[in-house]
Amino acid sequence: MISRELRQIVNGDQVSDGAGVQLKRIIGSPQLNMLDPFLMLDAFGSDQPQEYLAGFPPHPHRGFETVTYMLAGKMRHEDSAGNQGVIETGGIQWMTAGKGIIHSEMPEQEQGLLAGFQLWVNLPASEKMQEPRYQERTAEEIPVEVHDNGTRIKVIAGQTRQGTQGVIDNPYVNPLYLHVALPADTNFEQTVPESDNSFIYVIEGQLTLGDKQRLLKAGQLGVLEHGDLVTLKADENSEFLLVSGQPLNEPVARGGPFVMNTREQVEQAFADYRAGRLA
Ligand code: CO
């Protein structure tokens, strides 16, 4: 098997988005514009209410999926079709925006820690105009694989080496989305399809990656070279996300909340939004 080495370390940029939410943009930043099929990765985490209270008031999406994973706190979600719910600590919402949705994402708390991630996953051209769809799972509904050495693998999407299956269905890029906790000095291995694009984001601790023993620290995202095996060791008690997916290899035309294949399709999305056809 070919071990995946570390290709690039991305630290991300502090930005303000929505109505003034402070977050760190890691994918979708000048350092890493995209990692096909992943268009954006934001990490948010603050116990200062003024950094998150404003939330994300109603805004549209078309042509891709938004994936919200809460590490701490609660986020209320409402959309133009009347869907609503609260994503709580440890829960995931995998929203296929498809042909279009207008939604809001607002903190369901006025104090305390709010932390998590939003990942944007592209859809293939043939699926961009499908009906919107939600896959929402609470922490209790997501399987956790526990090993004798203390390793804990929360399997959101994809499958572990031991066969634990995630809860998210996505036949377009067959994603792997794992949240792994490793005790100090523990090794970890996960097979991935050779041609997938894969990254690791270190939530806490420090990892040593691949045969070349490259370091990846808390708060950093590591883009991995191609290969079929992710191998790493935790230098201290560590937590990280391992995310992988098949590249779509299609043209990408972005316009704010719309991600299509051509400029004309993005302009059509703006026109549809202005005309009230996304609601
Ligand atoms: Co949104």
Structure explained in plain terms:
With 279 residues, the chain is mainly beta. It has one domain: Sandwich (Jelly Rolls), CATH 2.60.120. The protein contains 1 helix and 24 strands. It has one helix at 263-274, and strands at residues 6-10, 13-17, 21-27, 38-46, 56-61, 64-72, 75-79, 84-87, 92-96, 101-107, 114-122, 133-137, 144-146, 152-157, 176-182, 187-191, 197-204, 206-209, 214-217, 221-224, 229-234, 238-245, 253-255, 258-260. The strands form 5 sheets. A 7-stranded antiparallel beta sheet has the order 1-20-17-22-15-14-13, with no helix packed on it. Strands 2-3-4-11-6-9-12 form a 7-stranded antiparallel beta sheet, with no helix packed on it. The protein starts with 5 loop residues before the first strand and ends in a 5-residue tail after the last helix.
What portion of the residues fall into strands of 2 or more residues? over 45%
Instruction: Classify the secondary structure makeup into a structural class.
Output: mainly beta
- Strand order of the main beta sheet, please? 1-20-17-22-15-14-13
State the CATH architecture.
Sandwich
Shape: globular
Ligands present: cobalt (II) ion
Determine and state the CATH class. Answer: Mainly Beta
